What we know:
The protein is mostly helical. It has 7 helices and no strands. Helices cover 83% and strands 0% of the residues.
Amino acid sequence: MLSYKSLYGIAKFNQLKDYYAILNISKTNDQSTIKKAYYALAKKFHPDVNQGKEDKFKEVNEAYEVLSDENTKKEYDTARTPQSQNNQSQQYQQYYDSRKYQSHSQHRQGQNYYQNQNTRNQFDEAIRRAQEHLNQQQQYRQYERMRAKQEYEDRIKQEEMYARARDQQYKEFAKSYHNENKRKTFYSQEEKEAYEQFVRQREFEESIKEKIQDFKLKGEQVMNGFSNINKNLGDIKDNLGSIWNTIKGKNR
């Protein structure tokens, strides 16, 4: 790093400029000679006298301000020595190296930050997609459950309507054969065949009722299965959210 004196010296004068050559004097001249040389050059390059020489006039003033003060003149002479210039170059190099290292360090920190931020964004996107997919699956399961329930209810209603219609037919038919256990003879062959068909139909409808009851039980089992699937999907979603909150807590 540059020392305080070096920075202070740079602020007061430019050691790369030869102020003695600017004033046309040597290092051994005293203050009166320096003052006379300054007045002569200032009069020569003054903007009122010689326009277009403003830079030269400023340069003469700068040289006189440094050399007219003994303390500043000593610091300037010391800074102009080869050893001092070598030390100054080393200090400049150290300062430049430190700034370069600091710049590289900040650049690496910035790269790490953006890399970590990119990783977090990718992970957030993956979690969001997983949750979106889970929500879609849950909605699809709910839709399938509602559709199956509606089909099941429609099928039951149809079967019940059919059963009620058949029961009404049985009742009307049974009025003619209310004493079927005691009846042994029939008035005609058609009456006997009608009775036998009634008995077969009665047995068939009883088997249909048993099948309807079994279908109801299986439908209830399917609905319970859909409820369990929905519950499991909810548990998976809660676990996924807990895992994500845990990971976010570790990355902070």
